[in-house]
């Protein structure tokens, strides 16, 4: 039987069951990795058991989140980091989360084409994933894709988020190390975003360090950090000016990422971060399954919507009823 495979580019060929892909994923074969990520992204029930098996083989990768406002140069920075890690013989994985196309629901690739060219030269694996309307900078399948790359032996695994300002804070629940990238000359814009994404940074990077405004942006960030409260960690977030185009100070940023990873291990903070990631994933999956269940059972949901609309029930009681905690009255 021939059907359309689940790779990003649809081709007609023999379908391989997900369970049969596990061995090839563990061996690091790119085609198997791409197919498994596609099935995770599409939510194929057939892939659940294989993904669960791959999860057991992970837990070794350093997950790095790259976030920041749109236009800061995140994709260019990721490309520069791929080159830096490749020069050390590191096997880098990248999950680049993009805005969804309003027509197809697919990812708008943009700079991902150039990033993929860099990845091909450096032996990295880059996958672009659409948000599909998901708020918070990450998609539901982002961490499943990370699991696949982790099991395949990639480390670090970089999550580049969509670039939507304060909604980016979700990346802190997915990564061990969070790099927030700012562009020079933001001025008052820094004040507008500092209550959101700036506080989640383990490392601050300022792009285009060759511009004269870069030093002012670095000073502004350092000033705001000095006024901020403690995070409970003994780590002091550095502010590093970099140029992804020229490569200036990219090695220093790479070293800072490595230093933070070592800090997490040395202080025992890694266990707390892992626990927070697991908690978020369990609760997030529960929310997804809850929504999925009542989208499929629309009549049940409609009954409660009608009761709330007619003021026979308030929304909190209706929610409890959907969970089976209350009987409808």
UniProtKB/TrEMBL annotation:
Protein name listed in UniProt: Methylmalonyl Co-A mutase-associated GTPase MeaB
Underlying gene: meaB
Tagged with keyword GTP-binding: yes
SUPFAM superfamilies cross-referenced by the UniProt entry: P-loop containing nucleoside triphosphate hydrolases
Domain AAA+ ATPase positions: 60-204
Pfam families in the record: MeaB (PF03308)
NCBIfam families, per database record: lao
Family per record: Belongs to the SIMIBI class G3E GTPase family. ArgK/MeaB subfamily.
PANTHER family attached to this UniProt entry: LAO_AO TRANSPORT SYSTEM ATPASE (PTHR43087:SF1), LYSINE/ARGININE/ORNITHINE TRANSPORT SYSTEM KINASE (PTHR43087)
SMART domains, per database record: AAA (SM00382)
Keywords, comma-separated and alphabetical: Chaperone, GTP-binding, Hydrolase, Nucleotide-binding
Origin species: Shinella lacus
């Amino acid at each position: 039987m021939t059907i359309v495979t689940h790779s990003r580019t649809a081709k007609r060929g023999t379908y391989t069951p997900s369970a049969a892909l596990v061995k090839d994923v563990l061996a690091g074969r790119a085609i198997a990795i791409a197919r498994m990520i596609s099935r995770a992204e599409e939510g194929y029930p057939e892939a659940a058991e294989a993904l669960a098996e791959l999860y057991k083989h992970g837990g070794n990768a350093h997950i790095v989140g790259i976030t920041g406002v749109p236009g800061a140069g995140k994709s260019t920075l990721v490309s520069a980091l791929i080159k830096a890690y490749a020069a050390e013989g590191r096997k880098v994985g990248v999950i680049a989360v993009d805005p969804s196309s309003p027509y197809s629901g697919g990812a708008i690739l943009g700079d991902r084409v150039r990033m993929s060219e860099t990845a091909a030269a450096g032996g990295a694996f880059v996958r672009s994933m659409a948000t599909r309307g998901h708020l918070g900078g990450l998609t539901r399948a982002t961490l499943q894709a990370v699991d696949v790359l982790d099991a395949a032996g990639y480390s670090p695994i970089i999550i580049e988020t969509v670039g939507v300002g304060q909604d980016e804070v979700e990346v802190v629940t997915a990564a061990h190390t969070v790099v927030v990238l700012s562009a020079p000359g933001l001025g008052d814009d820094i004040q507008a975003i500092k209550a959101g994404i700036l506080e989640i940074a383990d490392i601050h990077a300022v792009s285009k360090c060759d511009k004269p405004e870069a030093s002012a942006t670095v000073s502004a960030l350092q000033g705001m950090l000095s006024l901020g409260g403690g995070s409970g960690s003994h780590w002091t977030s550095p502010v590093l000016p970099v140029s992804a185009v020229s490569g200036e100070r990219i090695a220093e940023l790479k070293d800072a990422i490595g230093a933070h990873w070592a800090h997490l291990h040395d202080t025992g903070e890694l266990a707390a971060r892992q626990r927070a990631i697991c908690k978020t994933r369990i609760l997030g999956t529960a929310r997804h399954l809850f929504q999925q269940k009542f989208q499929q059972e629309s009549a049940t949901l409609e009954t409660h919507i009608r009761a709330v609309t007619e003021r026979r029930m308030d929304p909190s009681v209706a929610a409890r009823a959907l969970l089976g905690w209350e009987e409808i009255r």
